[in-house]
From TrEMBL:
Pfam annotation, one family: RNA_pol_Rpb2_2
Top class in the EC scheme: transferase
GO function term, MF aspect, one: DNA binding
Organism: Nyssa sinensis
Top-level taxon in the UniProt lineage: Eukaryota
Protein name: DNA-directed RNA polymerase
InterPro entries (alphabetical): DNA-dir_RNA_pol_su2, RNA_pol_Rpb2_2, RNA_pol_Rpb2_2_sf
EC number: 2.7.7.6
SUPFAM superfamilies, sorted: beta and beta-prime subunits of DNA dependent RNA-polymerase
Family membership: Belongs to the RNA polymerase beta chain family.
Length: 248
């Protein structure tokens, strides 16, 4: 929750969006314009005055953004500077369709499903804020998604390859506009250099932004047998929990 002029309003973090977006703007981008439609996805009982009072600042904060201006908010925070407005809106729609809650669906006409799931998450958040529901244990394996080396490297490569294609497209278009020869050899080292950098740092995602994940790689000390064993998942015991246990 963010402190605003009308109180604490809720914001969401979307993939490939540089800043946090108010939840009401996200609902409008998903196709739900009326405030009643948004509230029906979040608050299942309109007589619950406590939850409705928590949602009031979010509605008031986003009241100034009307009609199609919600796309302006998303496109300005996500797309590259210099492209046309139509391309920025298309880019924002692709983010909502393919990157936001991909496990719910990535095809067309999935906006309703994503809106229900998005409202369900906000509903649980408000229940925790009101003290009506216990806070989830982030360290419990039930609430974790185990990303092994394959998915982590795959997501990292996908992000870097998309960036490479955007840079090559912009470079080729610039050469065509200026009448210069295209020399793609300048871009051939961009992908391996970026991949090696992330492997050395052990992180995935854009640096210094929300969504950056640790664990892509881990330095293993080979100075002594003790350091090798300390990095082995088979030898990490913490109290009554057996974390990182390797069945093999």
């Amino acid at each position: 929750m963010i402190k605003g002029s009308s109180g604490q309003y809720i914001q969401a973090t979307l993939p490939y969006i540089r800043t946090e977006i108010p939840i009401i703007i996200v609902f409008r981008a998903l196709g739900f314009v009326a405030d009643k439609d948004k509230l029906e996805h979040i608050c299942y009982d309109f007589s619950d005055t406590q939850m409705m009072e928590l949602l009031r600042p979010s509605l008031e904060e986003a009241f100034v953004i009307q009609n199609q201006q919600h796309w302006t908010t998303l496109e300005n925070e996500g797309a590259t500077v210099g492209v046309t407005r139509e391309k920025r809106i298309k880019y924002a729609k692709e983010i909502l369709q393919k990157e936001m809650l991909p496990h719910v669906g990535v095809g067309e006409y999935c906006e309703t499903k994503k809106a229900y799931y998005f409202g369900y998450v906000i509903h649980h958040l408000l229940l925790c804020a009101l003290g009506l529901r216990a806070v989830d244990d982030r360290d419990h394996y039930v609430n974790k998604r185990l990303d092994l080396a394959g998915p982590l490297l795959g997501g990292l490569f996908r992000m870097l390859f998309r960036k490479l294609t955007r840079d090559v497209r912009a470079y080729v278009q610039k050469c065509v506009d200026n009448g210069k020869d295209v020399n793609l050899q300048l871009k051939q080292k961009q992908l391996p250099v970026a991949l090696n950098t992330h492997l050395l740092l052990g992180t995935g995602g854009r640096q210094m932004q929300a969504g950056t994940r640790a664990g892509v790689s881990q330095a293993c000390g080979l100075n002594s047998v003790q350091r090798i064993l300390s990095n082995s998942p088979s030898y990490k015991f913490f109290g009554q929990w057996l974390l990182g246990w390797c069945p093999s």
